[in-house]
Amino acid sequence: MICPKRTSELLDLHLAPFKDKDPAWEVGVSKIAGRGVMATRHLKRGEIIFQDSPLLIGMAAHEEDSLNSCSVCFKVLPDTRFMCRQGCGLPVCSLCSKKKQHKSDCDMFKSWGPNEPDVANSVIIRLLCVARAINLSKDQRDLIYCLQANLDNNHRTEVRNAAKCFKNFPTDKKLVEIMNRTVAVLRTNGFDKTTDRTTDNQEFNYRALYPLFGVMNHDCIPNSYYTFDEKTNNMIVRAAVDILEGEEITTTYTKLFTGNIARHLFLKMKKGFTCKCPRCSDSTEKGAFISGLYCRDTNCTGLVVPEITGLPHPNWNCLVCKQKSTHAQMMKSQDFASGAINAKANSNSLRTLVHYLNEKSDSFIPSSNYVVIDAKMSVLNRLAVAREDCNEELESSTKWRYSRDITQVMDKLGLGDSLLRTQLETQFRKEEERRAKKQQEQAEKQRQLAELEAKAAEADKLLAALAVE
């Protein structure tokens, strides 16, 4: 294990611009794995724990992406004439083309000789974040080497593929090793266009390495969450719950609303470790039943959950009748439900999807299952953009109901503050206020109608009295 003291020294140098005289954290020996970030004092829910700046950052370019964004400021450029005119093979805006950062990038890539310098290439643009490690200071490169790296058989593939895009790609073993190591660190601890973290934290559309965040260990029920400053891309980490002095500060590498088996496979395959947190050790996931499916016995109404969540293909056990099912059998049920709901989600009718989730899906998949939760999240995201074919009443009731449902799942899991919770609770309050206002308006209309009816009755009495006279 790399010395926590040396890691702390390098982190202090990296975070010097923030000048935190009384930091709320320190690097120490973790009970989860290796090193970790520990609280140096009691932290209240919502309190800022630390800020971190990217040691490396670049475009998370993929082949299917639009590649006309400046490689320095990341602003989207016009569709034509956005490539650097110096022949480095990078897109850049006119302002950034004169900056020190681009000059350094440009000189490096130009010396390597891009095969097609005037054509945007996702492989070259994606490599930039990694290649920038070459021009870091010794302390900064040492910090990269202090971070955990998953050195599997594939971590050299990216650099090898990038080499084919240049005529004079470096052959110096030291430079190639720096890039390979950086790829491994980014894959283990970095960000890459929100591929993993999309349901609990702010989305991040770049490829980047935040060193202090990279030291944090994973927990499937993290006690912190993060946001980004849009102008600087600095990360701000806050306490999701109250954290005691000496307690480890954790984050999550996975989506929150994913079942135990799926999270286990992702962490094992992508991050190289097996999570043993309390949630992973509980087949019911603290009573949230996110993996739960209905029992295959038509006479039983129980839920079926995987017996041993640490195995990739465990047997499943009904909590009521105790009937056992194979993993393959339960995956057929899961796949059927996923296919049915996704078919409605992919249709052009949002109203149809909402009706299906409200009236049909519960007959073959529990409302707690992550497929249903994902579908409800999708509905809320679509309604945030447009009402589509839903009327005002359906829009309001759906936002109220789905925000409540997802928040209740978060409560069962024991999840604290997050951007998602804030959004859901804000949405729920808005709909509560709208419903209350509508009820008040209806009550006022009924009161006014009652007054009119009373006046009409009084007038009838007067007319009747006059008629008698």
Automatic annotation (TrEMBL):
The keyword Coiled coil applies. SMART domains: SET. It comes from the Eukaryota. Residues 421-469 form a coiled coil. One of its GO terms (molecular function) is N-methyltransferase activity. Residues 23-254 form the SET domain. GO terms for biological process: methylation. InterPro entries: SET_dom, SET_dom_sf, SET_SmydA-8. Keywords: Coiled coil, Methyltransferase, S-adenosyl-L-methionine, Transferase. The keyword Cell wall biogenesis/degradation does not apply. PANTHER family: SET AND MYND DOMAIN CONTAINING, ARTHROPOD-SPECIFIC, MEMBER 4, ISOFORM A (PTHR46455), SET AND MYND DOMAIN CONTAINING, ARTHROPOD-SPECIFIC, MEMBER 9, ISOFORM A-RELATED (PTHR46455:SF3). This is SET domain-containing protein. It comes from Drosophila rubida.
